[in-house]
Design a protein that fits this description.
The chain is built from 6 helices and 5 strands. By secondary structure, it is of the alpha+beta class. The radius of gyration is 29 Å and the shape is rod-shaped. The chain starts with a strand and ends in an 11-residue tail after the last helix.
């Protein structure tokens, strides 16, 4: 069985439909199997007829920078939640006169502000490496903190961190 296809209209014209205005002049007869193959093509793929033969072209790959941008936006959102928690913890530590905690939180906040541009994250060339680099940075920064400040990462980022090293 066959159907019709117009390259100029990029549309199939089945024989069983009456077209009051006719069909385009460039309509050509193609196997019905071509129609089914074109309709079953993968999402994002395109099709065309080249010298009367169906050609399906794969969808273009999504550029890493586009994928990375979305992941880094999510990392910034998580970072902001951690920063907010750390600010509250830092103010409480300041009120308690805990200078060590205040200093550690100030350093952690600086590193967090740079998390999306630090060298290990900037060097990532694929999404797996990017995710690993961001997670490693969160873990590295959290490891510099103790107690409730570490829990800010667990609460805001959903990270299950290893317990802080004992200083005894």
């Amino acid at each position: 069985m066959t159907t019709r296809y117009s390259p100029s209209a990029k549309t199939f014209y089945p024989f069983d439909i009456d077209y009051p205005n006719g069909v385009p002049d460039d309509v050509m007869e193609v196997p019905l199997s071509n129609f089914h193959a074109a309709m079953a093509r993968p999402v994002g793929a395109t099709f065309d007829f080249v010298k009367g033969k169906l050609k399906i072209t794969k969808a273009p790959a999504i550029a890493f920078r586009d994928i990375a941008s979305a992941h880094l936006d999510a990392a910034r959102t998580t970072r902001d939640a951690i920063l907010n928690r750390l600010a509250g913890i830092g103010f409480a530590a300041m009120a308690d006169g805990d200078a060590d905690t205040v200093q550690a939180i100030a350093a952690a906040r600086t590193w967090l502000l740079d998390i999306t541009t630090c060298p290990t994250v900037a060097a990532a060339q694929d999404i797996e490496a990017l995710q690993a680099a961001v997670n490693a940075e969160y873990a590295r920064i959290a490891a510099t903190l103790s107690g409730e400040a570490r829990r800010a990462f667990d609460d805001a980022a959903g990270m299950a961190l290893a317990p802080a090293a004992s200083t005894q």
